[in-house]
């Protein structure tokens, strides 16, 4: 049972770190990677873009939700006992400071570094006549026809400004009226953000100009007969969260499509302006957007450094991380190059644990679904899909299986945030191919990662299952770190069958053998195991807890970990993002260590390990330690039983908590300290590089 806030059974009231400020601390860690001179330059640009994209989503969802609740008077959940208004003020102040630091990193370090390496972002004034002629021709052919300047006057009201788009505010002098008029020009989002100045083949010395810079120097042609007085860049972020009252709608897809249309017109949450904007224009924007002063972020150009994603596609391997090609898991390798691996035969012998992107998704998960689709002995395939792509080979395999007459069930979560429209599109494509498509349970997101294949073997039905920590998306599998278990265990097969019956029908199932399933059991199962470790510690028996998650917010779980720590249980928490638990605080969390790892891959797997008096119990799955995961989603954890798999998880945690590996550690004052060099001043290796080497060596050994 979740404890009421402030009722911690003797635990101090200030025992939680605010979740929103903790998220900003996570994005600061992303920024620190961009600031790190040992990271290749184009990767630093990529981290700058990730920081910007992350912050946009944070404002569109978290800040928007907090502000909406304050304005409407709804109860605002906060786990630190402070006024929501004070929390919002702290968020705005901290986010603004981080954005200014973000801009300085680009202007003072990354941009000059790239220029020195032959990748230059130039301004119009730096170009000669020949360059300007080339760009003017490009502008007239590719940009000018799609531009739509909009005047603002008594006959033309202030236009709608879409969220996250770059805009030019323009003041022009009209000689007919002898007045200065205002116009707004949207920078087209479908045109590449950074335009190549020249068309030479070489990539060792390239120049780019920002699209808004190019347009701004062609304004005279957009306003003939007028004098352009000045122009400035601005950008607005809107509330883009989606809320659907599922129990009040008859058609979820139609309701979602309607809500997606409304999303475009959400209220403004943040206004970013270039630092050269005049007061007259700023006053107009503030008035029209009806925002407060603390929501205005004055920044040096260029705004929206998310546009740097485009530069990272430049073919300059010397400015990027050394390429890593995922290896095929040793158990899935064919005996000879001409052999075709039989994944079913392999999985029938022993369970297989794969680790992406170190081990290939295409030769494991994708090959599993494709083999099932083509195998005449396969009768049925069931799969959950949370985020994938419409051109995914997984989707293609499911369609192929349905067209071949197999029973195919796809549970599509169309409410996956910011992927809703894409999910609706390919869900309908699946339906048209004869796949049974269902959309989960009312009021719950289906977030678990499951594939079940039913195969006839020797006149009997055999279950083959994959349970993972990440999405069935071949593209993100190359950059997201995740685990997946392949098994033909009858116990797991029965469990997964029960769960799919719950998801597609009206069954209510509470009994599983090797699975923990949210929302009915998972929280209670974790709390029970945490308490068991505390009892073991008090009795002098071996105890220990190791947790890896994207986020840790749930108060009941955190309080249970505090009590376990006070009982003497060593607790290791490995978290990528939000972390509300405090570490190493005397009398509260003396035995709790918290680490964070960020790098070239996004740490995404969830692992929950318990010493259990020497009989270790380890789960992997889809659930983070957040209210939404434990209470409002269908999540699944599965136990690992193979001793080699348990040893592999132990080795993974040993890397993360080693003093000889680069990582961030949470200090008792709630700040994060990055350790990048050892006591001798030597640069520490990254955990991800170590795992890459470990998996390559394992492939050579043929280990599991």
TrEMBL record:
Task: Domain (PLD phosphodiesterase): give its ranges.
Answer: 599-629
> PROSITE patterns attached here?
PLD
- Which SUPFAM superfamilies does the record cross-reference, listed alphabetically? Phospholipase D/nuclease (SSF56024), PHP14-like (SSF143724), PPK N-terminal domain-like (SSF140356)
Q: Which GO terms describe its biological process?
A: polyphosphate biosynthetic process
Enzyme Commission designation: 2.7.4.1
- The residues responsible for catalysis, as annotated, are 447 (phosphohistidine intermediate)
**PTMs?**
An intermediate of this reaction is the autophosphorylated ppk in which a phosphate is covalently linked to a histidine residue through a N-P bond.
**CDD domains membership:** PLDc_PaPPK1_C1_like (cd09165), PLDc_PaPPK1_C2_like (cd09168)
> Which Pfam families does its entry note?
PP_kinase, PP_kinase_C, PP_kinase_C_1, PP_kinase_N
Positions binding Mg(2+) in this chain are 387, 417
Residues annotated for ATP binding in this entry: 54, 480, 576, 604
Which prosthetic group or cofactor does it need?
Answer: Mg(2+)
Q: Which reaction does it catalyse?
A: [phosphate](n) + ATP = [phosphate](n+1) + ADP
Supply one GO molecular-function term: polyphosphate kinase activity
Is the ATP-binding keyword given for this protein?
A: yes
Instruction: Alphabetically list the UniProt keywords.
Output: ATP-binding, Kinase, Magnesium, Metal-binding, Nucleotide-binding, Phosphoprotein, Transferase
UniProt lists the family membership as follows: Belongs to the polyphosphate kinase 1 (PPK1) family.
- Cross-referenced HAMAP family, in alphabetical order? Polyphosphate_kinase
NCBIfam families for this protein: poly_P_kin, PRK05443.1-1, PRK05443.1-2, PRK05443.2-2, PRK05443.2-3
Instruction: List the PANTHER family.
Output: POLYPHOSPHATE KINASE
Protein's name according to its UniProt entry:
Polyphosphate kinase
UniProt organism field: Leucobacter chromiisoli
| Taxonomic placement | Bacteria, Bacillati, Actinomycetota, Actinomycetes, Micrococcales
């Amino acid at each position: 049972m979740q404890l009421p806030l402030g009722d911690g059974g003797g635990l101090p009231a200030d025992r939680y770190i605010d979740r929103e400020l903790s998220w900003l601390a996570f994005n600061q860690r992303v920024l620190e990677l961009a600031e790190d001179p040992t990271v290749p330059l184009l990767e630093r640009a990529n981290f700058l873009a990730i920081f910007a994209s992350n912050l946009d989503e944070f404002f569109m969802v978290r800040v928007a939700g907090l502000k909406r609740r304050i304005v409407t008077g709804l109860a605002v959940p906060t786990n630190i006992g402070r006024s929501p208004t004070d929390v919002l003020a702290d968020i705005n102040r901290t986010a603004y400071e981080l954005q200014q630091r973000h801009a300085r990193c680009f202007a003072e370090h990354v941009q000059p570094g790239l220029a020195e390496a032959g990748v230059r972002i130039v301004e119009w004034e730096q170009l000669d006549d020949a360059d300007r002629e080339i760009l003017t021709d490009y502008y007239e052919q590719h940009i000018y026809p799609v531009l739509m300047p909009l005047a603002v006057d008594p006959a033309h009201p202030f236009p709608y400004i879409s969220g996250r788009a770059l805009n030019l505010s323009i003041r022009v002098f009209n000689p007919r009226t002898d007045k200065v008029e205002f116009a707004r020009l949207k920078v087209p989002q479908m045109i590449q953000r950074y335009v190549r100045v020249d068309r030479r083949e070489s990539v060792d010395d390239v120049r780019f100009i920002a699209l808004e810079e190019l347009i701004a120097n062609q304004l005279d042609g957009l306003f003939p007969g007028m004098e352009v007085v000045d122009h400035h860049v601005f950008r607005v972020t809107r509330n883009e969260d989606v809320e659907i009252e599922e129990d009040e709608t008859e058609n979820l897809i139609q309701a979602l499509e309607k809500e997606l249309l409304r999303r475009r017109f959400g209220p403004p949450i943040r206004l970013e302006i270039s630092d050269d904007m005049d007061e007259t224009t700023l006053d107009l924007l503030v008035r029209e957007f009806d925002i407060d002063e603390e929501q205005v972020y004055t920044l040096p150009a260029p705004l929206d450094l998310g546009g740097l994603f485009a530069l990272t596609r430049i073919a300059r391997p010397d400015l990027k991380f050394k390429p890593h090609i995922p290896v095929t898991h040793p158990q899935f390798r064919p005996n000879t190059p001409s052999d075709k691996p039989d994944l079913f035969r392999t999985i029938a012998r022993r369970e297989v644990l794969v680790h992406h992107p170190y081990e290939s998704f295409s030769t494991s998960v994708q090959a599993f679904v494709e083999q099932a689709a083509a195998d005449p002995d396969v009768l049925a395939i069931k799969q959950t899909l949370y985020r994938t792509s419409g051109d995914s080979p997984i989707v293609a395999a499911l369609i192929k299986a349905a067209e071949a007459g197999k029973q195919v069930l796809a549970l599509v979560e169309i409410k996956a945030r910011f992927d809703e429209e894409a999910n609706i599109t390919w869900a309908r494509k699946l339906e048209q191919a004869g796949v049974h498509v269902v959309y989960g349970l009312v009021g719950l997101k289906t977030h678990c990662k499951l594939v079940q294949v039913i195969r006839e073997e020797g006149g009997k039905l055999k279950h083959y299952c994959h349970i993972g920590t990440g999405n069935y998306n071949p593209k993100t599998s190359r950059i997201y770190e995740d685990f997946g278990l392949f098994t033909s265990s009858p116990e797991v097969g029965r469990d997964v069958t029960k769960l799919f019956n719950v998801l597609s029908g009206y069954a209510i199932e509470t009994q599983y053998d090797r699975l923990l399933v949210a929302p009915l059991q998972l929280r209670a199962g974790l709390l029970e195991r945490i308490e068991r470790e505390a009892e073991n510690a008090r009795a002098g028996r071996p105890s220990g807890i190791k947790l890896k998650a994207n986020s840790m917010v749930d108060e009941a779980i955190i309080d249970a970990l505090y009590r376990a720590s006070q009982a003497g249980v060593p607790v290791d928490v490995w978290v990528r993002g939000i972390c509300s638990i405090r570490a190493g605080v005397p009398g509260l969390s003396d035995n709790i260590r918290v680490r964070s790892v960020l790098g070239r891959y996004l740490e995404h797997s969830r692992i929950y390990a318990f010493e259990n008096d020497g009989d270790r119990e380890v789960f992997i799955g889809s659930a983070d330690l957040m209210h939404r995961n434990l209470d409002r989603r269908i999540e699944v954890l599965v136990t690992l039983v193979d001793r080699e798999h348990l040893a592999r998880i132990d080795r993974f945690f040993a890397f993360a908590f080693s003093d000889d590996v680069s990582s961030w550690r949470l200090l008792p004052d709630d700040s994060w300290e990055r350790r990048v060099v050892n006591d001798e001043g030597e640069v520490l290796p990254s955990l991800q590089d170590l795992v890459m080497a470990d998996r390559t060596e394992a492939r050579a050994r043929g280990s599991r």
